[in-house]
């Protein structure tokens, strides 16, 4: 009798935890991970505060905001498992917020586990909660206007610029960004932003900025709903109809309120597309019934978003 010495087949290796979208340069993913490292520190600090006081409403609300951001941005950079984990945690924290005084809920322990698992999925070390930065405030007091693309060498004077779309510039390097925001001139329609986006998640804002710059679009960006509305009401669009990518869940003023105010004060000026993690059918119908052109569900695929923007606005490469 012979004995088969062939070793049993080994299971296939697990897939890599992160497959970055091919359109993203490594430098942009590295920037995201750096911001995610800081965000993990905030989450670790919130977890420890929940261990000490599990019914603290302010801490629960801050945890909901931070998990919401991870849900929306991680998948856009290719970390789909981290995005799904954050989606589940966000739903859990919303339940905590609805019943903050419910006994026998180990909020702190679950939050600690979430931070540990999230760090594993992102390939980062679990942060030291004792050195964690405080959670960011729910509302930013100042707008963060950003413009693009950067000026080309030796631009023509506004009076000599052709009405047709200029040639698209190559994607810019991921070097430090300018400290001064670009200013949109009012010399004519060729100077008006083609795309405006309002997004409070810094990681998603960076992703959209990269994509729009790479395609050569003129754009502006804001991070606070109330500040964005003030600027949108005052912006001279020179008879054009810029595309407005509007996050539903914004600090200070939500996307539906902004759209309602624009419909009252400047009807038909902007073509609005909502962006949000809430992709259920009823949520999308609510946005369309409110007057939105379309809906982008987070995590956002930059490639898909840019293709849709090309169809809505035109141009692009």
Report on this model:
With 317 residues, the protein is of the alpha/beta class. The chain is built from nine helices and six strands, in the order H-H-H-H-E-E-H-E-H-E-H-E-H-E-H. A six-stranded mixed β-sheet has the order 1-3-2-4-5-6, sandwiched between helices. The longest helix is centred in the first third of the chain and has 27 residues.
- Specify the biggest β-sheet: 6 strands, mixed
Percent in strands = 5-15%
Structural class: alpha/beta
Share of residues in helices: 40-55%
Number of strands: 6
Quaternary state reads: single chain
Number of helices: 9
Question: Which consecutive residue ranges, at least 5 long each, have pLDDT under 50?
Answer: 139-144, 150-187
Detail the topology: elements first, then pairings.
Elements: H1 26-52, H2 57-73, H3 80-98, H4 107-122, E1 146-148, E2 195-198, H5 202-215, E3 219-222, H6 225-234, E4 243-247, H7 255-265, E5 271-276, H8 281-289, E6 294-297, H9 302-313
Parallel strand pairs: 2-3, 2-4, 4-5, 5-6
Antiparallel strand pairs: 1-3
Helix pairs in contact: 1-2, 1-4, 1-5, 2-3, 3-4, 6-7
């Amino acid at each position: 009798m012979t004995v088969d010495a062939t070793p049993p087949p080994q299971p296939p290796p697990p897939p890599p935890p992160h497959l970055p979208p091919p359109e993203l340069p490594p430098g942009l993913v590295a920037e995201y991970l750096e911001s995610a490292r800081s965000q993990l520190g905030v989450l670790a600090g919130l977890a420890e505060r929940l261990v000490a006081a599990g019914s603290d409403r302010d801490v629960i609300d801050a945890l909901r905001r931070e998990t919401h951001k991870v849900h929306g941005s991680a998948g856009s950079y290719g970390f789909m498992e981290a995005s799904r984990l954050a989606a589940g945690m966000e739903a859990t924290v919303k339940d905590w917020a609805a019943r903050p005084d419910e006994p026998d809920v180990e909020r702190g322990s679950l939050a600690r586990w979430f931070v540990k698992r999230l760090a594993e999925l992102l390939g980062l070390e679990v942060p030291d909660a004792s050195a964690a930065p405080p959670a960011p405030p729910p509302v930013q007091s100042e707008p963060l206007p950003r413009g693009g693309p950067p000026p080309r060498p030796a631009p023509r004077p506004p009076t000599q610029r052709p009405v047709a779309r200029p040639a698209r510039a190559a994607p810019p390097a991921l070097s430090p960004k300018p400290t001064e925001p670009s200013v949109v001139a009012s010399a004519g329609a060729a100077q008006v932003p083609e795309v405006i986006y309002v997004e409070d998640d810094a990681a998603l804002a960076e992703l959209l900025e990269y994509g729009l710059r790479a395609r050569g679009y003129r754009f502006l960006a804001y991070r606070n709903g109330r500040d964005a509305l003030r600027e949108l009401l005052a912006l001279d669009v020179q008879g054009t109809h810029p595309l407005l990518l509007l996050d539903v869940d914004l600090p200070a003023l939500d996307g539906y309120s902004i759209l309602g105010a624009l419909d009252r004060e400047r009807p038909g000026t902007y073509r609005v597309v909502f962006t949000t993690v809430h992709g259920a059918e009823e949520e999308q119908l609510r946005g369309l019934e409110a007057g939105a052109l379309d809906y982008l569900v987070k995590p956002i695929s930059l490639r898909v978003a840019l293709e849709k923007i090309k169809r809505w606005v035109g141009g692009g490469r």
